[in-house]
Design a protein that fits this description.
The structure is a homodimer of 225-residue chains. Chain A is α+β, with helices and mostly antiparallel strands. In chain A, 31% of the residues lie in helices and 30% in strands. Chains A and B meet through strand 1, helix 2, strand 5 and strand 6 of A and strand 1, helix 2, strand 5 and strand 6 of B. Chain A binds a DNA duplex (30 and 30 nucleotides) through residues 163-165, 180-183, 185-186, 202, 204-210.
DNA sequence: AATAGAAAGTGTAAATGCAACACTTTTCAT
DNA sequence: ATGAAAAGTGTTGCATTTACACTTTCTATT
């Protein structure tokens, strides 16, 4: 076994997680940001974060922190990067691991979000954030965009059932460019894991649009990344 | 400013870096692994790692750890992922950030590697490693393979000047599949940042092969990822 | 001096995937 | 009855990728 000194001669650090929480509304991506009514950096904007506790994995800490703010515990989340420069937190040294989360904006707990003084902010209206959170957002956005091109993670931003128009608008928001409707629908049609539910949504058009659903089993079977 | 208690009520953790060091020889990728002659886990195989010290960034710690083993301080390195499950290190709780490094196998310091009881091990001969190092290797390999498909990071595994045959063999090793010579050379010819030096290598064939070099300036100009 | 061996180097044609492009259908509110 | 608004639907050209085999050059050997 290792002698205690093997570990104890080395320093320890606070560990935190910071979460880039993406939502989708009005055809645009938004982030859930805190206007901090607490120290440190009271009054400034930041990501939702929190310290890692004893016996808690990084992934669990990120899930807990996001659930504290949104009330949602079943979100799609991915680790992005760990930021460890000395001085990145001017108070004490903290290593922070960034995670991104994808939220169906119809589902989050409005009361919790309000209690934290958090707000959905559209991507192109994001204010300057504290510490290195601006960079975290850039890194998370790039990573999420990349993932969205190789697997349908974006679907986690939509309700369980969605129309192809919603899906296309979402991908236009994620990629930041318009997509041809016919080419888009051709591509979706070739993905057997995006399947018609048979139900029709009539809230957005007179004609009504077919509702689709993501079939995780078919996807996991056909696809490995 | 933040009250001290904001930080001090939270636990601190040891922070480490573990390095997946790739090399290329005999047409195959290898990793530089330690056969540990020290505790913990003496006698077993592991990645080269080390603790993060006060005032040292994660990137700096990773560079230091790789330099301790190879003597090389100018390597291409990238952060892969941070592993923070409680119990991942059976001794004490340690958060470990994995980095991969690419080494020109002609350049490393043989004495240092020998002193650490380290060995180059071909990818398909890798023994079971301690803790979660097996998973780190899998994650690093996937990440490095992906990066190699979008930018020419593989070139960091070759000497300053290299032949097209060497480059092709390297990419075959990275991607794990054979590549057609004519198609490969057509693609390389379209990359103006891989340029002929005018020099000829005669060590590998009677006829001699043109030596090429990576032009970082041309690449950075033409290409953004 | 001839030659055999070994790696370097070179072009074309078919197939596939991707991008561009505009009109019809359906339904409901007026 | 009709106008408005969104849903839905195929084809063609272009570019990229893949498949495929022989010639050149040099030197070590005989």
């Amino acid at each position: 076994m290792a002698p205690k000194a093997y570990y104890s001669i080395h320093p320890k650090f606070h560990a935190a997680v910071d979460c880039i929480i993406f939502g989708f509304e009005e055809g645009e991506l938004s982030l859930l940001l805190l206007q901090r009514d607490f120290e440190p950096a009271k009054g400034q904007w930041s990501l939702m974060g929190g310290f890692v506790e004893e016996g808690e994995s990084l992934d669990d800490a990120a899930r807990r922190v996001v659930a504290e703010l949104t009330g949602l515990s079943d979100l799609y989340m991915r680790q992005v990067h760990t930021y460890g420069d000395p001085g990145r937190d001017p108070g004490e040294r903290v290593l922070s691991t960034a995670y991104y989360a994808l939220v169906d904006i119809k589902r989050y707990d409005h009361a919790l979000v309000k209690a934290h003084n958090a707000h959905w902010v559209k991507l192109n209206e994001i204010p300057h954030l504290i510490f290195d959170h601006d960079r975290m957002v850039q890194d998370a956005l790039r990573f999420m965009r990349y993932q969205a091109t190789v697997k349908p993670v974006g679907i986690n931003l939509l309700p369980e059932e969605f129309t192809l128009t919603q899906l296309q608008t979402l991908y236009e928001a994620i990629l930041g460019e318009p997509i041809d409707k016919r080419n888009f629908r051709k591509r979706i049609a070739s993905m057997d894991y995006i399947e018609k539910t048979g139900r029709i949504d009539k809230t957005l058009s007179r004609k009504g649009a077919a509702l689709y659903r993501f079939n995780r089993e078919k996807f996991d079977g056909n696809f490995k990344i």
